[in-house]
Amino acid sequence: MKLRPLTDAGGLTGLYCGTHGPSLAFLMTLEKQASCCAWVLEDASRVKGAIWFTRVDGEAELVDIRVEASSRQQGLGARMLRESLAVLATAGVTTCHLEVRESNDIAQRLYRRLGFAESGCRHHYYGAGDHREHAILMTLKLEAMSAP
């Protein structure tokens, strides 16, 4: 399996069908901006996942991370995140930020395992049916990343 820079939307449609979060159309618009960094994880030319960041100077923000449904719980999200953060660090990024739904315990565990720490909260940020859900803000100093 190999992480490579995103060059086009080929193979990504299945990752974004019927899911929450940013749409593929939005992400492909973002990809055209100089501040966007995006990678796909492939296995024999089949896309298993994608990860998207925006980057300004020494800071990056994780915009989206996806792993195909049949490949979840295999460590692929952690691998993509770890490898992409290493690339960003070599490019001068020192801090990475993200936000995650308060109810997304699986993602929060992944981020904490890689060294992200809670840095704030956006109250009532996400629509969730009849109510609003908080966004948990998390930050990682890249020099403080945990070992795999």
Can you walk me through this structure?
The chain has helices spanning 13-16, 24-31, 76-90, 105-113, and strands at 2-5, 36-43, 46-56, 59-67, 95-101, 117-128, 131-141. It has 148 residues and is α+β, with helices and mostly antiparallel strands. Strands 1-2-3-4-5-7-6 form a 7-stranded mixed β-sheet. The two termini are 17 Å apart. β3 and β4 (59-67) form a beta hairpin. 24% of the residues lie in helices and 42% in strands.
Sum this structure up briefly.
This protein has 148 residues and is an alpha+beta fold.
SSE blueprint and pairings:
Blueprint: E1 2-5, H1 13-16, H2 24-31, E2 36-43, E3 46-56, E4 59-67, H3 76-90, E5 95-101, H4 105-113, E6 117-128, E7 131-141
Parallel strand pairs: 4-5
Antiparallel strand pairs: 1-2, 2-3, 3-4, 5-7, 6-7
